[in-house]
UniProtKB/TrEMBL annotation:
Keywords: Cell membrane, Membrane, Transmembrane, Transmembrane helix. This is ABC-2 type transporter family protein. It comes from Clostridium sporogenes. InterPro entries: ABC-2_transporter_component (IPR051449), ABC2_TM (IPR013525). Residues 19-367 form the ABC-2 type transporter transmembrane domain.
Amino acid sequence: MKILNILKKEILENLRDKKSMFLMTLFPMLLITILGTVFSGNFASTINIPEINVMYFINKDVKIDKNFRDFTKEIEKTMKVNFKETKDEKDALEKISNGKTDVYIKIPNDKKIYIYENNLRAFNSQLVSTLMDTLVDKVNMTKEVISKNPRALSKIKVNTSPNFINIKTIEGKDSPRGIDYYAVTMLTMTILYGTAVGAMSIASEIKRRTYRRLICSNTSPLKILFSKIVASFLVIAFQSFLIYLFSKYILGTNWGNNKLALVSVVASLIFMAVSAGVCIANTIKNEGVMSIIIYMFVPILTFLGGGYVPLEPIGNKMLNSISNISPLKWSNDAIFKIIFGNNLSIFGTTILINIGAGVLFLLIAILFPRKDVI
C-alpha cells in the first residue's frame, strides 16, 4: 500500500510540474517540427550510390578468373565502383584500415573468397558483398547444371554482357524523411533526458527532508527505490506516448508496423535512463554535480547517437567507432531498422545493452549509496 501511495504521489507531482512537462513534451514536438522541416533536403527519397573503391587479388589459376573479371568490368560500367588489382595484401589491408579503400577481395583458390570490409562506410562494403554473392550464386548454379546435366548447359542462353545490377529508386515511404528522422532522434533524446526525472525523484525527497520520514514509516530503501523507478518510468512513458501521437497524427511521421518491437526498444531505453538517474542521485550528494553530469553527458551521447545529424555521412572513422558507446546510437539504429524494413538484426543486442546498463546502474545505486539514503 505504501508503494502505491509513493507511486501516486510521484506521478502526480511530475504531471503537475508545468516546466518539466513543457521541456519533456512540447519542446521535443517543436524541435521535431523545426528540424524535420529545415533538414528535409538532407533526406532525399532517392538514394545516390556513392563512389566505391575496391582492391582485389585473384589467383590466375582459379576457374572463376574470367567470370570475376567480366563481373568487375560490368559493374564499373553501371555503377561508381572502382576495381584495382593488387598483389600487395599488406598495402590493401592498410588502406582498408585508414579508410582509403572500402573493400579488399582475395580469391586464392576455387574454394574460398575472402572479403575484408571497412566499417567506416558500411553501405559501400555491404553493397560489394551483395554483388559478390550474386557472382558466387551464378557460378554455383552453372556448376550444378554441369554436374547433373552437361547437355542442358548448351540450351542456357549466355548473356555476353551480364546484368549483375538492377537499380531501382527507393520510394520515400521506405526511407526516412527529415521529419521521420527527427521524430525518432528527438524522442530518444527526450527519454535520455528522463535521467533527470529519475534523479530528482530521489534528490527532491532528500532536499525536502521527507526521505527520512519514509524510512521511519517502515518503508525500506529498496521499496522506495523501486517506487521511484516505476513512477519515473510511467511518467516518461506517458510523455513519450504524447510525442509519438503528435508526430504520427499531426506531422504524419512513419513509425512502421512492428509496434511491439518498437515499444520494446523504447521501454528498455526508458528503464536505462531512469536507472541511471536514480543511480546518480543515490550515489552523489551534491545536487550541482548531479546536474552537471546529466546535462553535460546527455547532449554528448545524443550527438554520438546521431540525434542532431547523422554521423555516417561525415565519414570520420574515429567518430563512428566512439559513437558505439552511446546507447542512443544502438536504440536509434534499431528503431530505424524496425520502421524501415522490419529488420530485427540488432534488436536483441539493443535490448540487452539498455537493460544490462540499467541493471548495472541499479546495482551501483544499491551497493554504493550515499550515507543519507541508507
